[in-house]
Amino acid sequence: MPVVMGLDIGGANTKACWLEIKDGQVIRVHGESIYYEVWRDPEGLYGVLERLKGQAWRFGSGRAPGAVGLTMTAELCDVFTSKVQGVRLILAAARQVFTGTPVYVWTLNGDFVSLAGAEEQPMEAAAANWLASATALARSSRVKDTTALLVDMGSTTTDILPLSRGRVEVYGRTDVERLERGELVYTGIIRTPVNTITGSVFINGRPCRVTGEYFAITADVYRFLGYIREEDYVAAVPDNGARTPGGCARRLARVVASEPEVLGWSGIYAVARYIVEKQIQQVTEAIWQVLSRSRGTNGIWCPASGHRMLPRQGEEGGSRRFLGKEPPQMGPPGGRETGPGLTPEGQEPAKGWPPGWPRRLIMAGQGIFLLEQIAGRLGWEAIPWWELAPGSQGEIIDNGRWERYALTAYAVAWLLASQLET
């Protein structure tokens, strides 16, 4: 079948994935992420999409993508007076750039609609990327009969999504509901200002309040400590300085109104490690909030049940939904299972774990290296998401596991390609 393109348009990162499926198998897959701050110039998004469209042509050996699956979060940018305005600008950009190519928009109902359908109900398309990721991975053979927690820690935010027996079991639907429920945490590996993670650090054995200025971001912390490379520091630098460890040290010292020459390298190291610890606490506390709620189904919001398919090509059917087949189940050949799994009903849980609680953390995003530490503290199995997704691959850099492309873009492409093939 023709190449299918998945797009996740964020406020700071636009992520794309191109894949080809034949007879239910992923034949080829490739992805790219472009750092672009939509809030500075929304019209510049057209150029970003044109560039990614060109990449799709190269991936398809000179052919345009057969279809585009779209999801977004950039509608929250404060350059827009409302989310509705943001969604409609993104849809207009997609319509213009991909003229002649069917564009399907992923929604909070867990299905695709046409561009016209999304324009009629724009809030259904707002911030739905997390649901594409969770829906795709919930079908993995390694988690479909058990429970797991998908945690996607990106440059700006962290999603915490319970998966149970092939279902996405969340309480929140909108951003504010998800923030309230602990399923969305505004903390990330690159763009988060340090002073939003902790109000104080320790200097010479005493607590020291941090400044309220935009002096340093988490990219400075992780670049200084060697967790990320210079090319991974894609965000704008707070002082427009260097992305070197020395430049990061100078910005981190300013967090306590000081300088490297005063604090010394070991003093800055202690500050940076403490900030890491506090960010781990932010994510872990949200995980415990999610785990603390009732394990029953009362009050849990799940995507619309039932089988879905797409509007026919060229159909601008408003917000109508179309019934059909689900995409095929995800997972490696043979459905290989690892880890202890669930305790059978009626038996004592192993090591005191309550029956039904997850013991697997599926890791995604730029913060995989931090999520591995969190999984270790919880005593859970840590699984990178690409081990559950057909045709996907990660990579090892400096003994660390990294994703080659964003889960959100892969998921929306895979869900769309699977439905188009049926």
Brief description of this entry?
This protein has 422 residues and is of the alpha+beta class. The chain contains ten helices and 18 strands.
How would you describe the overall organization of this protein?
With 422 residues, this protein is α+β, with helices and mostly antiparallel strands. The chain folds into 2 domains: 4-171 and 293-421, no CATH class; 194-287, Nucleotidyltransferase, domain 5. The protein has 10 helices and 18 strands. The strands form 5 sheets. A 6-stranded mixed β-sheet has the order 3-2-1-4-5-6, with helices on both faces. Strands 7, 8, 9, 10, 15 and 16 form a 6-stranded mixed β-sheet that branches. The chain has a two-stranded antiparallel sheet with strand order 11-12. Helix 1 (45-59) packs across helix 2, helix 6 packs across helix 7 and helix 7 (245-254) packs across helix 8 (260-292). It is globular.
Low-confidence stretches: 304-347
Query: What is the mean predicted local confidence, pLDDT?
Result: 86
Q: What is the overall silhouette?
A: globular
**Helix count?**
10
Please outline the major beta sheet: 6 strands, mixed
Helical percentage: 25-40%
For the termini, the CA-CA separation is: 11 Å
Beta-strand portion reads 15-25%
What Rg do the Cα atoms give?
Answer: 22 Å
How many distinct beta strands? 18
* Total separate domains: 2
Give the neighbour order of strands across the main sheet. 3-2-1-4-5-6
Order of helical and strand elements: EEEHEHEEHHEEEHEEEHHHEEEHEEEH
What class, by secondary structure content? alpha+beta
